[in-house]
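haha ok so turns out i had the wrong file open the whole time. this is the CORRECT one, sorry everyone. sequence first:
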Amino acid sequence: MDNSSVNQNNYLWNKESEWAEKGLEIFFLPTYSPQLNIIEILWRFIKYKWLETEDYESYSTLVKAVENILINFGKKYTINFA
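then structure:
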């Protein structure tokens, strides 16, 4: 997990022992390690590879373009980690 504030709450810590009994171990990524956070990799591809210049013309065109990418992720838009 990253060290985002949403991941630092009592609910998480109260469940830690219960999850450990089930074999689930929670570990946190090192501070500022976007290369290890999959959502950061996805957003980098969206921003630098898949969005076109014209997608930034307005808020609505940007939203439509991002929605299109997310809907087609895994089909038209893929990331090869190899």
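The chain has a mean pLDDT of 86.
again sry for the mixup
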